[in-house]
Amino acid sequence: MRITLLGTGSADGWPNPFCSCASCTAERADGRSRAPSSALLDGCILIDCGPTTPHLPGTAGISLAAVEHVLLTHGHPDHLHPAFLLSRRWTAPTRTLHVWGPAHAIDLCRDWIGPDSCVDLHVIAPGESFDLPTPTGTYDVHVLPAAHASGDGDILATEAVLFDLSAPDGQRLLYATDTGPLPATTFAALTGRFDAVIVDETFGDVHDHGTGHLDLATLPVLLASLRDQGSVTDSTVVVATHLSHHNPPTRELRERLAPLGVRVLDDLGTIDTHRASGRPAGRRLVLGGARSGKSVTAEAMAADGLHVVYIATGGVREGDDEWAERVAQHQGRRPAHWQTIETTDVTAALMSADEASTILVDCLALWLTAQLDDLDAWTRAESGDRAGVQADAAGRIDAFIAALTQCAADVILVSNEVGMGIVPATASGRLFRDLLGVLNTRTAAACDQTILVVAGHPVPLPSRTGVPSHA
Ligand SMILES: [Zn+2]
Ligand SMILES: [Zn+2]
């Protein structure tokens, strides 16, 4: 199952647009904004549809045209903004859209449906199970009571439900927002293992909110119980959602939730339940000149990984204070829960990486330098053995590319883009420039995406589809 989070924020989003608290300010400074929570499953099932849900996917090139079913947890306005039914009607639909939800949520949809809307409404109640047929197979849904009511007679909260959903590929998801600590009946129904759990974590460090939501004190308790009964295992992908500004900034939240095995994704983040890392398998290359912002870009791309292994290829340079200061600066920027390995043997590190991790290699230019040092290339190049060095270096690059393509982990590689300046004065300098060009080109060909960072701005490069290979 592939899950795209169309929103991971609370009702007011995070940052709250009108708030200047430290948490909202930090999120804005990071350029991060979370829309109300919603999820898209395999492109065909939408869970909840708030006011911004239909509009966010377009920014990532995702359409909702293939959605056959909308599952509503409840009718609060951040989870149901029925105007989407009118938008869909204006596309002159011929296929039926099925909307499933608790009685009062479904009532809110009725005024938005005309005779030619091609929409079927289905009232569901806790304890019920039903099938969702789609072109790729049938999903099974089991409806469970949430604990969202706060005792103020809010019927929309009282009827809120959670979904236990199994996909045609056998993968199973628990979608559990909005809810506080689970009712006993819900908990008892969650027997067996889940591949993914998307769970409420609205209130962060505010514990006396008295609402039907989870926070950083109650979520760990719930997860421990789910682990005890085997519903959540180490290979279950657990993601926090419905996040509000009562949480510490995302960067800190990730560090606090990582030990619990809980991931914090950005909006439009995707989960691939077939992979223990939860991330869609991918290899990405980040290129840039010196101080272009390439490392910062790569670190931001790795930030939602739960087990990030940072491979520093620079090594230790005795007596080089400028280098030491740079290394310290990089280290200070990296989250404390990342593992750092200092090695120039990137090939071995890629071969031994496990599927649950995200590998960040910074950087390939230093790796190449180490290979050339090892091959005594500089002396050989100056004394005319350019061809010999090239052949030896090609062997190292072949082994690296083979390891990269076989690596089970998600990989993000940083490299320098150096060939645009003046021609280096020395034979060894020209050799290095040429070999790095070859290494970058071959690495890019083995990657799913290549990003060029210019003056701090990441520019995704178009795919090479249709360009003849010149390996
Ligand atoms: Zn909500
Ligand atoms: Zn709600």
CATH topology-level fold name of the largest domain: Metallo-beta-lactamase, Chain A
Instruction: Characterize the biggest β-sheet.
Output: 7 strands, mixed
**Unreliable sequence segments:** none
Extended strand count? 21
Radius of gyration: 25 Å
What is the topology, as strand order, of the major beta sheet?
6-5-4-3-2-1-14
CATH class annotation of the largest domain: Alpha Beta
> DSSP strand (E) fraction?
15-25%
Structural class: alpha/beta
Name the bound molecules: zinc ion
Helix content: 25-40%
Calculate the terminal CA-CA distance, rounded to whole Å: 35 Å
> How many structural domains does the protein architecture include?
2
At the fourth CATH level, what is the homologous superfamily of the largest domain? Ribonuclease Z/Hydroxyacylglutathione hydrolase-like
CATH architecture descriptor of the largest domain: 4-Layer Sandwich
The coarse overall form would be elongated
Short description:
The protein has 471 residues and is α/β, with parallel strands linked by helices.
Name a few traits of the molecule.
471 residues, alpha/beta, Metallo-beta-lactamase, Chain A, Rossmann fold, 2 domains, seven-stranded mixed beta sheet, 14 helices, 21 strands, 23% strand, binds zinc ion
Give an overview of the whole structure.
With 471 residues, the protein is of the alpha/beta class. The protein folds into two domains: 2-272, Metallo-beta-lactamase, Chain A, CATH 3.60.15; 283-460, Rossmann fold. The protein contains 14 helices and 21 strands. Helix 6 (218-228) links the parallel strand 11 (196-200) and strand 12 (237-241). The radius of gyration is 25 Å and the shape is elongated. The chain starts with a strand and ends in an 11-residue tail after the last strand.
